[in-house]
């Protein structure tokens, strides 16, 4: 009797490669925070100069969201993500040879350019590889690897720093990033029809139609439709991103200054909320997909997870502010971050649901909310701490913003897609966005006379 080994599906191999990208890119992003004190001591940097090095990443990161996503829609995610990963890999590698604050700022700026367009491009890469019922899981597992990268960065980078110095840490991470680019080039294709390994059965499971990828490249980007459908998702992402940036930037300071933990305790209790986020990211995507499979209601499957995630984060954040026991405060923070991260895969799935073949641009629009929050939240949070002398006020404001995001999430409808808008306009005979004016006029004339059975003679 002949037995057949179960074949690993190609889309799952691609998903594993993308998980590795999220993991490496996040380490490249936050490694500077771990090595920062050592770099400052070696180069004799002031606090302001080190802050400039830290912030140089955020601005191109926010700016590149829509640009990177749009480029991936037009030229395909394989080419765009290859170029972006080469940029951030080379920037990370070159940081190990930096000799001045100006060079550090320039290299962090380049890192922001490379990583700024990476996540929207990765989202676009899933458009023709992940079925609707697996998109939540795909976004959840990839972003859980990003949080895992953030959690392992301190011990990983510090181990290399102890063994060989901070420069070795950047050189090794840069080499790892460039090695991932080679792996990506070998494995990924823009669509299933371009991949020799994909079977017809898997193509049917994905729901891909032959020629969809090439037709998407030729299509004009419907900017107005995308903005109309995505602006609310962007706003909810801003509310989510505000609190996430607080965790990523102010958590160690809060635990040390407001809760009195020493350095040894700080390493453990800083990692604990981030590890809770790893579980939350994966669970949020799985739950959303399960709800969709069981109910067939896409809006319920997405919005219910958004509301529960942000609501749960709010519920645990409020008692954290008033907790007197430092350990209980850490547990509340971990629970709050767990629920907050439940929403993350859904937020990244919505551009796929709503944008479809324009998912790169839609994902860039959505994550612009997170980028803007990254520019504002840490500064405002720090200003409020300085003016009030307490962490309670900025945490309370963050909680209020979560409440506003919950209300906004009720009005998101992923079933109202951009492609549905285009199809409706096509059936109604209206021209699509991006059509030149003279073509619109011509189309209007043709549509007006289409119903006539005989030609209209000019003398009548």
Q: Which percent band covers the strand fraction?
A: under 5%
Query: What spatial form do the alpha-carbon principal axes imply?
Result: globular
**Count of helix runs:** 18
Based on DSSP secondary structure assignment, what is the total number of beta strands? 0
The number of distinct structural domains comes to 2
Quickly give the structural class.
mainly alpha
Distance between the termini: 82 Å
CATH H-level superfamily of the largest domain: MFS general substrate transporter like domains
Condensed summary:
The protein folds into two domains: 182 residues, Up-down Bundle (Growth Hormone, Chain: A); 208 residues, Growth Hormone, Chain: A, CATH 1.20.1250.20.
Structural key phrases:
460 residues, mainly alpha, Growth Hormone, Chain: A, 2 domains, 18 helices, globular, disordered C terminus, transmembrane helix, transmembrane transporter activity, transmembrane
Please give a structural write-up.
By secondary structure, this protein is mainly alpha-helical. It has 2 domains: about 10-190, MFS general substrate transporter like domains (Growth Hormone, Chain: A); about 220-430, Growth Hormone, Chain: A (Up-down Bundle). Helix content is about 80%, strand content about 0%. The chain has 18 helices and no strands. It has helices spanning about 10-45, 45-55, 60-75, 75-95, 100-115, 120-125, 135-165, 165-185, 200-205, 210-220, 225-260, 265-295, 300-320, 325-355, 360-390, 390-410, 420-430, 435-450. Helix 3 (about 60-75) packs parallel to helix 6, helix 12 (about 265-295) packs antiparallel against helix 13 and helix 12 (about 265-295) packs parallel to helix 14 (about 325-355). The protein is globular, with a radius of gyration of 24 Å. Mean pLDDT is about 85; it is low at about 435-460.
């Amino acid at each position: 009797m002949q037995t057949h080994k179960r074949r690993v599906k190609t889309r799952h191999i691609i998903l594993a490669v993308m998980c590795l990208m999220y993991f490496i890119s996040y380490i490249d992003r936050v490694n500077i925070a771990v090595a920062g004190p050592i770099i400052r001591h070696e180069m004799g940097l002031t606090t302001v100069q080190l802050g400039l090095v830290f912030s140089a990443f955020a601005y191109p990161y926010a700016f590149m969201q829509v640009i990177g996503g749009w480029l991936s829609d037009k030229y395909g995610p394989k080419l765009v993500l290859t170029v972006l990963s080469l940029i951030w890999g080379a920037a990370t590698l070159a940081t190990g040879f930096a000799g001045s604050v100006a060079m550090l700022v320039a290299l962090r700026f380049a890192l922001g350019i490379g990583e700024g367009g990476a996540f929207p491009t990765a989202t676009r890469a899933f458009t023709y590889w992940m079925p609707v019922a697996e998109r939540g899981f795909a976004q959840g597992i990839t972003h859980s690897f990003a949080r895992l990268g953030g959690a392992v960065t301190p011990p990983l980078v510090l181990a290399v720093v102890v063994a060989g110095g901070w420069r070795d840490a950047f050189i090794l991470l840069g080499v790892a990033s460039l090695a991932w680019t080679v792996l990506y080039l070998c494995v990924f294709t823009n669509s299933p029809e371009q991949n020799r390994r994909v079977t017809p059965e898997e193509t049917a499971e994905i729901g891909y139609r032959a020629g969809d990828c090439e037709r998407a490249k030729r299509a004009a980007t419907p900017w107005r439709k995308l903005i109309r459908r995505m602006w609310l998702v962007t706003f909810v992402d801003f509310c989510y991103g505000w609190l996430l940036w607080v965790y990523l930037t102010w958590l160690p300071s809060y635990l040390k200054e407001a809760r009195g933990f020493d350095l040894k305790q700080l390493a453990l209790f800083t990692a604990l909320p981030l590890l809770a986020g790893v579980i939350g990211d994966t669970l949020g995507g799985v739950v959303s997909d399960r709800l969709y499979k069981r109910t067939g209601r896409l809006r319920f499957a997405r919005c219910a997870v958004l509301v529960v995630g942000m609501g749960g984060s709010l519920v645990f954040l409020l008692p954290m502010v008033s907790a007197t026991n430092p350990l209980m405060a850490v547990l509340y923070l971990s629970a709050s971050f767990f629920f907050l991260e439940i929403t993350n895969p859904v937020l990244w799935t919505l551009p796929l649901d709503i944008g479809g073949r324009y998912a790169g641009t839609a994902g860039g629009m959505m994550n612009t909310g997170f980028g803007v929050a990254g520019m504002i939240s840490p500064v405002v949070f720090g200003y409020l701490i300085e003016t009030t002398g307490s962490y309670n006020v900025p945490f309370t404001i963050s909680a209020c913003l979560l409440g506003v995001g919950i209300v906004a999430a009720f009005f998101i409808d992923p079933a109202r897609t951009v492609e549905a808008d285009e199809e409706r306009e096509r059936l109604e005979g209206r021209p699509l966005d991006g059509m030149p004016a003279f073509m619109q006029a011509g189309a209007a004339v043709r549509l007006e006379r289409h119903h006539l059975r005989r030609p209209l003679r000019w003398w009548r």
